[in-house]
C-alpha cells in the first residue's frame, strides 16, 4: 500500500541503470582528461615562470593559417577559437541527449540541475560586481569570469579523493556542468561579441543547414560532414561571434534518437563516443597549456594580484559564490517544490558538490581573455585569480567529501550489489522499468 510519504518527490533520486552506466563511461573519460588538463596547466605555469619563459611566449604567439581568410591566428588563438569548438560541440551533444532521451527529459528531474546551474552563475556574478562596482577602467567586463564550472578539472579532483559518489550525484554534477557550459556560451555570444558582421553570420547558415540535413538523414561520412563543420566555424569566426558558438550550433542539429527502434546507438551518442576523447584528451589540455601560462612576476607579483579587486572578485566568486549559488538553488527547489532529498543523500553531500562546482578553469580563462584581452596585466591577474580560486574550492571540497567518504562507500556497495549476476545491480530492479 502506498503511503503519502512514498509519493513525496525526491531530489537526486536514482536514475535508470542504462543512464547510470552511460554516465559512468563519460566520467571515466572526463577524469582522464582532467588529469591531462592539470598536467598541462602545471607545465605551462612552470614554464612561464622559468628562465625559458620567452620560448613559451614565442610558441604561444607563433602565427599560422591563411591570411587571406583572416585565419592567420597565433597557436594560442587556435586553441581558444578552434579546439574549444570541439569541447562545446561535445557539450552540446550531451546537453541535447540529456533532455531528449536521458533521465532529464522529465521536467521534475531537469529542474534541479538547471536551477543549480542558474544559481551557480548568478551569485558569483553578483559577488564579482560588488567587488568591482567602483573599480572603473572596464573591470566590470569580467563579471562572467567566476560563473563557469570545469567538469574535467572537478572530476580530476574526485579521482584524487577516490570517493564513491552515489550515481545520482555523479549525474547531478555532470548535468550541472553541461548546463553551465551552455549558459556560458550564451553569455559569450551575447556579451562578449565585439563587432558583429551579419554577412558571414548569414552565410554560415548555409553550411550549417546542409550539415543538419545530412545528419538528420543519419549520414556519418566524415569527408562530407567535416568540411561543412569547418566552413561553418570559419564563417562564424569571421562574423565576430566567438567561433566556439559554431560547435554548439552544429551539435544541436544532430538527432539523438534512432530512426528505427532496436539495438545500437543514436547519431548523437555515436559522435559523443568519437569526439569526447579528442575533447577531453587533446582540445582542453592544449587550451589549458596556452591559457594558464601566466608570469607571476610579469603580473606585478602575487601581492599586487591579491590586492586587485578583479582577482579578488574572481576568487571569492568561485569559492563562495558558486557554493552559495548551487547549494542555495538546490535548497530553494526543495523548499518550494515540497520535495525531499533521496534516501541516503545528505545536505553535506550537496554542499560538497556545490564547493566542487567552484573549480572553474577552461571557460573562466576564456572569458577572462575576451573581457580584458589576452596578455594584458588584468588578464594575467584574472588567470591567477582563476587558478587560486579553483585550488581553494578544490581543497575545501576535498575536506567535505573526504569526511563523507565512508558514507559514500557504503552507498556504493549497496547500489552495486548484483545477487543474480545478470549484470544489473539489484537496486535498479526494485522498481519496474528502471533497468
TrEMBL record:
Tagged with keyword Disulfide bond: no
Main localization (coarse): membrane
Lineage top rank: taxon: Bacteria
GO molecular function, a single term: sodium:proton antiporter activity
GO cellular component, one term: plasma membrane
Record keywords, A-Z: Antiport, Cell membrane, Ion transport, Membrane, Sodium, Sodium transport, Transmembrane, Transmembrane helix, Transport
InterPro entries: Na/H_antiporter_dom_sf (IPR023171), NhaA (IPR004670)
Residues passing through the membrane, by range: 31-49, 69-90, 110-131, 143-161, 173-192, 198-214, 221-236, 242-257, 278-304, 310-333, 345-372, 384-401
Membrane topology label: Multi-pass membrane protein
Catalytic activity: Na(+)(in) + 2 H(+)(out) = Na(+)(out) + 2 H(+)(in)
Location(s) in or outside the cell: Cell inner membrane; Cell membrane
Gene Ontology annotations of biological process type: regulation of pH
Functional note: Na(+)/H(+) antiporter that extrudes sodium in exchange for external protons.
HAMAP family according to UniProt: NhaA
Family: Belongs to the NhaA Na(+)/H(+) (TC 2.A.33) antiporter family.
Protein name per Swiss-Prot or TrEMBL: Na(+)/H(+) antiporter NhaA
Species, as recorded: Micromonospora avicenniae
